[in-house]
Amino acid sequence: MSTPAPARTWQGPSAPERLALLRRTRSIAIVGASNNPSRASYFVTTYLLSSSPYDLYLVNPRESEILGQPVYPSLDALPVVPDLVDVFRRHDDLPTVLDETLAVGAKALWLQLGSWHEDVARRGEAAGLDVVMDRCVKIEHARFHGGLHLAGFDTGVISSRRALS
Questions:
Q1: How many CB atoms lie within 10 A of CB 149?
Q2: E strand or H helix that includes residue 57
Q3: CB-based contacts of 36: which residues, under 8 Å, 6+ apart?
Q4: Percentage of the chain surpassing pLDDT 90?
Q5: Model confidence at 55: pLDDT above 90
Q6: pTM, whole model, 2 decimals?
Q7: 80/19 Cα distance (integer angstroms)
Q8: Is the pLDDT of residue 60 over 50?
Q9: Cα–Cα distances in Å, from 58 out to 62, 101, 128, 135, 160?
Q10: 142 and 51 in contact (C-beta within 8 Å)?
Q11: Of 13, 39, 58, 126, which is the most exposed, with the fewest CB atoms less than 10 Å away?
Q12: What are the respective helix, strand and coil percentages of the chain, to the nearest 5?
């Protein structure tokens, strides 16, 4: 018998608050960026490079270039302080990523779909960060900007009604 996951008690920002965060963001660091096309971070990077206004900074100590973009070994190696840090790392790595995010002075921490760490969220908010968990920047950007079809979602209407002739 497996241990049940702890209840989620932290409340993230509402849709209007997430939209406001994305609107005020100018630069995004993608921590855990991957050169593997089957990885979510690769797909998110591809989408953001082609369909968003953000300056992207990719972070991965094992890569030097992804999609023609330079890759930095750490957040503190970036040439700028990113507005938002988008995280594609294992659960156990999240407290360290939070510490690094705070150390460089970023304003927001965004944990991707499936990533939930209540202690990290509470510590981040207490330190003044905007925190989003278990959401995808690509999906949220596309949703707010009418581009879900570009993000791999079929937004066509399916109906059982006959078309009127």
A1: 11
A2: strand 55-59
A3: 42
A4: 75
A5: yes
A6: 0.85
A7: 23
A8: yes
A9: 11, 14, 23, 19, 45
A10: yes
A11: 126
A12: 35, 15, 50
